[in-house]
TrEMBL record:
Protein name according to UniProt: Uncharacterized protein
Signal peptide residues on this chain, from the entry's feature table: 1-25
Membrane topology term: Single-pass membrane protein
InterPro entries: Kinase-like_dom_sf, LysM, LysM2_CERK1_LYK3_4_5, LysM3_LYK4_5, LysM_dom_sf, NFP_LYK_LysM1, Plant_RLK_LysM, Prot_kinase_dom
GO cellular component, one term: plasma membrane
Amino acid sequence: MGFSCCPFSLVFFLTIFSCLSLSLSQQPYVGKSTTACSIKDSSNSVLGYTCNGVNRSCIAYLTFRSFPPYDTVSAISHLLASDPSQISDRNSVSKAKTFETNKLVIVPVKCSCSGELYQVNTTYVIQHNDTFLLIANNIFQGLTTCQALEDQNSNLTTRLLYSGTRINVPLRCACPTKNQTELGLNYLLTYLVAKGDFVSSIANRFGSDTGWTLQANDLSEHNPTIYPVTTLLVPLKNPPSGSEIIEPPPPPPPSLSSPPSSSTEKDSNKTWIYSLLGAVGGSVVILGQWYLVYEYAANGSLSDWIYNDSKDGIFLSWNQRIQIALDVATGLNYLHSFTTPPHLHKDIKASNILLDSDFRAKIANFGLARLAEGEEGQFSLTNHIVGSIGYMAPEYLENGLVSTKLDVYAFGILLLEILTGKEIAVIYKENMNLSHALSAVLSDEVDQESLKLFMDFSMEEKYPYELAKFVVRVTYSCLEKNPGARPTMAEIVHSLTITLSNSMAWELSKTT
């Protein structure tokens, strides 16, 4: 009789211990697993955060970095299943607000348990060439994972994602544990980690405590490493407000709309433009003559690296190529969007891209640069057609139409050369129709053989296939015959920024 009570006592003890453990335990940080789509290890929260809080449902907060077309209150609220009124209130903006690209937006959501995991349920309609990885990391920026998407859409595979299909998307959120509520922590914010972020800087940004944030994510002071395109839970006493995420704006650029009053001022303005693009360190007068002082390009021009079989046996890696493309896109975006009036370079090509000792790209040779004289979305005309063969957009060659979309087209050609390791003249000889060549790569959903043949063989297939196809798609959009169908450089910068973050995470996932 006495012996029979032991199992009951043991069960009672284990039940109490289990409840206590759940109330005190925090959520494991997802780590480097977000690009390893075949790994579904729930121990690191790759499928979502465990339902271990005091409440099975609560108000939580997500962060999201705006980008077209998800750059308005209504679009973000629809994408993330949030109330537009609450988004406008939390960010102190109107419901008609359009956010600048890459603005960090606070998104209030209803977080609830679904089985053993917390999540916000939303949906997404598949677009052409989408994959679970691209949806998770590019569209939702890490608020879900490819593993979670596969798990909750088990009737689909990456190869069966047809355009127009609506899928379920579980967004990562969590409710405070008993331990957290006893400390007065009433909310958890799901923060999207970006390059250069640290746990301490994220906590400070939202008025939280670094120790609380480390504990919330099961991280230690000895190993606080976090990675881009992952989420970090930030415990908060009070709801976050837009004022807490406002960053100091960059200094306004001087206007270039008025003609310089002297040749010295004219040269100074040119130097200022070049300097902001990283191509020059300044200017100097020697014996009455002005000279531009260029930063030393320790690694020469980009053409030296992508057209030759090797450079002392060294090849540009996938990440280096994407970083170079992003550097060039960022420089062009500055010319197009942050100078008044906008300027265009008109001679973007591999030989005009210089590489420093860290393989960071600098745009050089502004000899053909000019003002973009047309209004937004409009064109100006010229009869003086100049540029580099293969890089000039069709509307410019055929009709003399000038706009910032000329640089976008030339950038698409440059991106094509970066991916293939071939000069545009060689590519034209192999296939005169670039659209058909790119379409063949994008339509190959079976064994990626077309992609392997398309990419520079010197990379030895050491690149993430899905991200490579995404960059091919960006290239395709840049080379649209209709200039109005081409993306802006701001959109390209966003796409390449996300690609670089994903690529870095992919590279880390390959390391032990």
